[in-house]
Amino acid sequence: MNRALRVEVESWPLREVFTISRGSKTQARVVLVEITGAGVTGRGECVPYARYGESMASVVAQIEGLRADIEAGLGRVELQSALPAGAARNALDCALWDLEARHSGRRVWQLAAVSPPQSVTTAYTLSMSTADAMAAAARKHAHRPLLKLKLGGSRVPEAVAAVRREAPQAVLILDANEAWTVDQLVEWMPHLSRAGVALIEQPLPAGQDDALADVDRIVPIGADESCHISRDVAAVSGRYDVVNIKLDKAGGLTEALAVRAAALAAGLDIMVGCMVSTSLAMAPAMLLAAGARFVDLDGPLLLASDREHGLTLVDGKLTPPGPELWG
After folding, report:
1. pLDDT tens digits, residue range 150-174?
2. pTM score, whole prediction
3. Which among 25, 140, 148, 246 is annotated as catalytic?
4. CA–CA distance, 42 with 314 (Å, rounded to integer)
5. How does pLDDT run across 261-289, given as a tens digit for each residue?
6. Of 25, 150, 249, 317, catalytic
7. Which CATH superfamily is domain 4-106 in?
8. Whether the Cβ atoms of residue 117 and residue 290 lie closer than 8 Å to each other
């Protein structure tokens, strides 16, 4: 099959500055991949992540390195061994799923033999800041059913208490992005439990997971940076309660479905997460959300504007994508 591959780096301004423990940004930079063949085009989107040694240049180079193979007809199965898990493979994998769906006239969920995606409640992320600033943000978004707090390695109970005062009904999940120590986790856990925190995501640096085996997890703990692909699930089982599946970590929907299956088989709950990106990156992740304990696909909500035919939010719930967007 003769195909044409197009790769483009895009910048999408954010509504406001977004801060986590590793830094701040004012725009989402994404890589768009389009694969055209037999009169139809499949699309995929990814976000290179410096934490995993990725950059815009390196991801574009990985994709361009496969140009000849992709244009000659490389399929999803061969792609899994042609590139390592990561953002580049994600964009290509999702574009190939979309292309296959458009060629076949079927939806991706049918091709993948999974349940059709349903509307799901998504978290809305509050950027890391002072307790007062996070309280003000919580007041503004108190109507949302699920709030995710980005937190660093200090004054965490104070920030959580301030948010809880302003959003008494919201379910709270915390994301430390590897910024805590095990002593801080143990010290803060009772305070966070009393505040009704439902999940602590990746409190310790990846590689320190063994320390969690001795922690009384009165608040469930989720693995993000510590679990990328299906082979990682066995290592986090018994130390974490939830696995956060992200397409950019897994290297696409194909491997993300395998991570989901492995996590469920190990008795772990599922969280579906995202990078800050457009609805095109969220659409494949919606296929992972069935039965997930937590869904965090708010990337487009943080943008000043989204792609045409983007996902819509009604009463805190994201609606499934139409075929005009993806799949």
Report:
1. 999 999 999 999 999 999 999 999 9
2. 0.95
3. 246
4. 27
5. 999 999 999 999 999 999 999 999 999 99
6. 150
7. Enolase-like, N-terminal domain (3.30.390.10)
8. yes
Domain ranges for the chain, please list them.
Answer: 4-106, 120-318
Q: What is the tens place of the pLDDT at every residue in 199-237?
A: 999 999 999 999 999 999 999 999 999 999 999 999 999
Tokens representing residue 67 in the block? 């140009």
| pLDDT value at residue 216 | 95
Contacts (Cβ under 8 Å, ≥6 apart) of 316:
121, 122, 124, 143, 144, 145, 146
Give, as one character, the DSSP assignment of residue 286. G
Quote the pLDDT of residue 315.
Answer: 77
* C-alpha closest to that of 300 among 280, 272, 323: 280
According to DSSP, the β-strands at 197-201 and 221-223 are parallel
Is 150 a catalytic site residue? yes
Asked if 233 and 262 count as a contact pair (C-beta separation under 8 A), the reply is: yes
Looking at the domain covering 120-318, what would its CATH class be? alpha beta
Q: Which residue has the tokens 């009393």?
A: 194
Residue 25 designated active-site: no
